[in-house]
């Protein structure tokens, strides 16, 4: 992997040089991990004119949630307590006679930006913008392999839960059990806080599990994801508890399923972000649910659970092959409940079979 990280940093260095910047200071943890292999707490990365250096307040631990540092990087540990790695990196950039430094202004606080500027007043600061996030959009096959394993773990955890007795258990208990099962199957942890919604809570996006107990006839909506070697997937399913679904439940489920299928089928290289959103949204909008829909029908996943691209009505851009995204339409009826169906897929050309579905738990409306 050392060559991979070096190539990523080399590409960033070329982009910085093209913009007239001698070096780049990376402070956003996911971006540090993408370029360095690990992101120890508070660490920053200096991509210099020649050498690249990671600045840390403490030695890397090697823990799974931190990652494994590229051995080709120079590591600098700060001496005194309270020292800021970003300030130390800017000081180093000035010492190697860099004349300009691109920084992630969208991540730095105003106070930290001022501190970086003050330590090296002759160093011109420029905005790096989302250059690293744009590099992260298209995943290599090793990254996709990590996402594939994360999806397998999430499928396993969800499948085991569906085989257990659910009536009478609380949303909070079910969420905690799912997160334990993720770790049992090899995840570093959950990709995000697990959401379990029952009855009137079902179908709500990012519902925080409560002490409501599962009752017969409820819709049960579950949204979870696994974090595997830093890469995060997402899956969401809705079921009916203990009885034959009511007519309104079948009708609503079929509608959301049709919207989700339309969104999945639109995931092809060259498709615009908003066209994918429209494919799913229009199905629900035509049924009269347009005003209650979420702002986007899906988003990118990777080292963060919600990264670019955003599949939204106003989003600009087109999909490339090897971009992993979610498609996650849902409808919530206040006081009654609702349906969410969420998958993680990888954009692939039609010649390769079209979108690759990573989360494979059945989307049939099961009565559990």
From TrEMBL:
One Pfam family recorded for the sequence: Creatinase_N
Region (Disordered): 187-213
UniProt KW Hydrolase keyword: yes
Lineage: Bacteria, Bacillati, Actinomycetota, Actinomycetes, Kitasatosporales
Name of the protein described by the UniProt record: Aminopeptidase P family protein
UniProt keyword Cell cycle present: no
Species this protein is from: Streptomyces polychromogenes
Superkingdom, natural source: Bacteria
Creatinase N-terminal domain location: 8-138
UniProt keyword terms in alphabetical order: Aminopeptidase, Hydrolase, Protease
Gene Ontology molecular functions: aminopeptidase activity
Positions of the Peptidase M24 domain: 146-348
């Amino acid at each position: 992997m050392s060559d991979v990280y070096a190539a990523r940093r080399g590409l960033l260095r070329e982009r910085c040089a093209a913009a007239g910047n001698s070096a780049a200071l990376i402070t956003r943890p996911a971006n540090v991990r993408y370029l360095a292999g690990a992101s120890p707490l508070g660490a920053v990365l200096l991509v210099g004119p020649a050498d690249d250096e990671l600045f840390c307040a403490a030695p890397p631990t090697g823990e799974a949630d931190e990652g494994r540092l590229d051995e080709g990087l120079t590591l600098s540990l700060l001496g005194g307590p309270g020292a800021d790695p970003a300030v130390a990196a800017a000081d180093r950039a000035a010492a190697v006679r860099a004349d300009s430094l691109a920084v992630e202004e969208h991540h730095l606080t105003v106070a930290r930006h001022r501190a970086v500027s003050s330590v090296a007043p002759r160093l011109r600061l420029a905005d790096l913008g989302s250059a690293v996030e744009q590099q992260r959009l298209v995943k290599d096959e090793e990254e996709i392999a990590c996402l594939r394993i994360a999806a397998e773990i999430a499928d396993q955890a969800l499948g085991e839960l569906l085989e257990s007795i659910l009536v009478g258990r609380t949303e909070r208990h079910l969420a905690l059990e799912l997160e334990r099962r993720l770790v049992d199957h090899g995840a570093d942890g959950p990709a995000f806080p697990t959401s379990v919604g029952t009855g009137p809570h079902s179908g709500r996006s990012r519902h925080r599990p409560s002490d409501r107990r599962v009752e017969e006839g409820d819709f049960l909506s579950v949204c979870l994801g696994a974090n595997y070697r830093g890469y995060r997937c997402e899956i969401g399913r809705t079921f009916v508890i203990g009885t034959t679904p009511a007519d309104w439940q079948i009708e609503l489920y079929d509608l959301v399923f049709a919207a989700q299928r339309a969104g999945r089928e639109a995931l092809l290289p060259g498709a615009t972000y908003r066209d994918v959103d429209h494919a799913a949204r229009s199905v629900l909008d035509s049924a009269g649910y347009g005003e209650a829909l979420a702002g986007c029908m899906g988003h990118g996943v990777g080292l963060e659970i919600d990264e670019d691209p955003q599949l939204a009505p106003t989003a600009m851009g087109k999909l490339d092959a090897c971009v992993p995204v979610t498609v996650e339409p849902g409808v919530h009826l206040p006081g009654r409940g609702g349906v969410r169906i969420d998958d993680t897929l990888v954009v692939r050309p039609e010649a390769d079979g079209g979108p690759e579905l990573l989360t494979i738990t059945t989307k049939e409306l099961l009565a559990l």
